[in-house]
Design goal:
Lipocalin; alpha+beta
């Protein structure tokens, strides 16, 4: 009986901490900083009535911008030269909506345009989280989670 009470006591302390480490929603999974690693674009062309071709172009980032999602629904894209582009974000039905703050002086970044993105988060084979955001123009942004 004493062994059982020790096990129960241990579980009441350890189990809630293990559960707290897991994100409960797609929005929780996004919070933090992500380094942009690549942009992919899929083109589908109809060659003839019976033939369709699909081409995937992938551009790897040489100087990777960082995308930060804050828990208050705001975030920013930080370019390699330190320029910051703030935005608002929200998640519903596993879709991310991004709306950038713009001013007349600000030059908009080409990544993470105002759009709605499908979200896919997976584990990279070398470890770490990979976030893929697919927009309505068949462009996928590939980001890798940055850990402190």
């Amino acid at each position: 009986m004493e062994k059982l009470s020790k096990i129960f006591w241990l579980l009441t302390i350890v189990f809630p901490n293990l559960c707290a480490a897991q994100p409960s929603t797609a929005a929780d999974s996004l919070i933090g900083s992500w380094a942009m690693s690549a942009t992919e674009h899929i083109s589908i062309n109809k060659v003839s009535k019976s033939q369709i071709t699909q081409t995937t172009s992938r551009i790897l980032c040489n100087t990777c911008p960082v995308v930060t999602f804050d828990s208050n629904g705001t975030g920013q894209v930080i370019s390699a030269n330190g320029l910051k582009q703030p935005f608002k974000w929200a998640v519903a039905n596993n879709r991310l909506k991004v709306v950038k703050y713009t001013s007349k002086k600000a030059k908009p970044f080409s990544i993470l345009r105002d759009s709605i993105y499908s979200i896919r988060i997976s584990q990279h084979q070398l470890g770490g989280d990979v976030l893929k955001l697919l927009d309505t123009s068949a462009t996928t942004y590939v980001l890798v989670k940055k850990y402190p």
